[in-house]
Amino acid sequence: GMEENFLSLDDILMSQEKLPGRAESSLPRLAVLLGQGAGSAESVPEGSKLEIPLWLAKGLHDSKRRIISVELPKIYKEAWRTVFSADANVVDLHKMGPYYYGFGSQLLNFENPENPEIAQTILQATGGGSVLAVSDSVCSPQTFIARFRRIMDSSQNAYNEDTSALVARLDELERTLFQVGQKGLNDFQCWEKGQASQITASSLVQNYGKRKLAEVDG
């Protein structure tokens, strides 16, 4: 899984998303943090079912010592992967999880036999939510590609319109893409009307070019 960027507000919020899990050993002084007790000195007993924030789950996870075990949230399980493969556009990703792509990539940090299938269903976002940097790190971006086409079509065909209904079902990465598409359309319309002297490259494209040059120089 990719590492979070803790200078990114989106990544900080994503790290607070919770995973279902189980305490495989006693967890000293974590009862209050995990909603299992009232006192700061209380421990979580072995075998307790938990809802663990992603940042804490990653900190406690150890492949050699069984401290906690983590389960897949339902939206990443086989039943939902089947829905995505049938028609990814019908799913309200924001309702199911506002950080579907980024959070899904973080699940790959935990040993799970379904990890290859999860990686094939989602597009792993890298670089703390960078939109164009994602393309290098995926096996088969089925969900993202299926939804990306509609997102960009919508962004290019909604000029000076209320787009709240269009973005309501999108996860945060998709909303960023929609906004990029809208900005590009608005910039073009301004240029076409003579209201702008030139069309400039998107900052996302510029950053992507700089990253590629850095890789070559390295």
TrEMBL record:
GO terms for cellular component: GINS complex. Residues 8-60 form the DNA replication complex GINS protein PSF3 N-terminal domain. Its main location: nucleus. One of its GO terms (biological process) is mitotic DNA replication initiation. It is found in: Nucleus. SUPFAM superfamilies: GINS helical bundle-like, PriA/YqbF domain. Residues 77-191 form the GINS subunit domain. Keywords: DNA replication, Nucleus. Component of the GINS complex. Belongs to the GINS3/PSF3 family. The GINS complex plays an essential role in the initiation of DNA replication. Required for correct functioning of the GINS complex, a complex that plays an essential role in the initiation of DNA replication, and progression of DNA replication forks. GINS complex is a core component of CDC45-MCM-GINS (CMG) helicase, the molecular machine that unwinds template DNA during replication, and around which the replisome is built. This is DNA replication complex GINS protein PSF3.
